[in-house]
Model the fold of this input.
Amino acid sequence: MDLKKMREKRNTLMDEMDALFTACESGDEVRAFTEDESKRFSEIETEVRALDAQIAAIEKRNELDEGGAGAGADGDPAADEKRTLDEKNFLEYMRGETRALDIGQNGAVIPAHIANRIIETVKELSPIYAMATVFNVGGDLLFPVYDESESSVSAAFVEDMQELTEGTGKFVNVRLENYIVGCLAKISKSLMNRTDFDLLWFIISKVAQKIAEFLEEKLIQGTPGKNDGVLSAKQVETVASDTVLTADDLIDLQMSVVQQYQKDACWIMHKMTLKAVRKLKDNNGDYMLNQDIRTPFGWSILGKPVYITDSMPKIEAGKPVIAYGDMKGLFVKLAQGIELQLLVEKYATQHALGVVGYVEFDSRIVEPQKISVLEMAAGG
Done:
């Protein structure tokens, strides 16, 4: 869609509308529209409103396409043209047709707006990342967190003129830091040279897939000495058995999250755990797990959607096997300015090209009351 031409057409119509008003106010005489003028005014109004709606839709589409990064969000034709040129030069460079890109010490730097699209693709590929509270910024982030266990603030009935007993509240600071994550993808030059192959999308999806797979694991399991995952939750329910789950265990886990955080709560588990849960029945012999086409993965337990991931542990003694709650309690910092570079010579002998990406990442459970974990009993 050519936004420039659409805006020019809108301006022409507005000039015609102004001319209709001017014709009614010539000299000292002020008159009403004639029948033909009134009809034409209505036609112009309808066309202008339609153009406004289409222009707004295109601008919104551009904003979403760029991951809300601002490029093209203002509908600037010059910005649109620059992005198109960047993509053209980038693809020509990859195919060896030009050296138009800036060359850094380790390769060619990929245009920023292309890199930003990778972050949006990561969000589509990783449900846990999409559900968390995400900050796409660089640098450390510091959050003050109210520690309920160390606080003595309370309310009570008092008599008139009676002194209140003071309580103390304690805050702890949770810091999201800069841990660097790197990924490398190799692309066959034979594949790149195919004219029917969408090379740009392949690069974006390939790198995004690698980052999403990494994040999926780390946001679930965490890394000692670095980031927290949902399995780091302080609210833990331990089942009686080390091998078997019961319906009561699921109810206990769900009720460990307070009511105010139940609205957006969900279940996260391994597919083998889901298999075991699917066989659970209530006292009437009905299966507890219900198919629900309204939920993202088609299943719900006790009214809440179920997400499966291979990053969750299977049922095993002493293992945390199910996470439940509002995953917005997990705060994630993933720098929007992902650094991507092309490695042209490194894989030349393999008739391939490398795409390497680096991003700053960290995660912490900043709102611990929102997330609970179900843990199997220790064996032996």
About this structure: DSSP finds nine helices and 15 strands in the chain. The mean pLDDT is 78. The CA atoms of residues 17 and 42 lie 10 Å apart. Residues 3-65 form one domain.
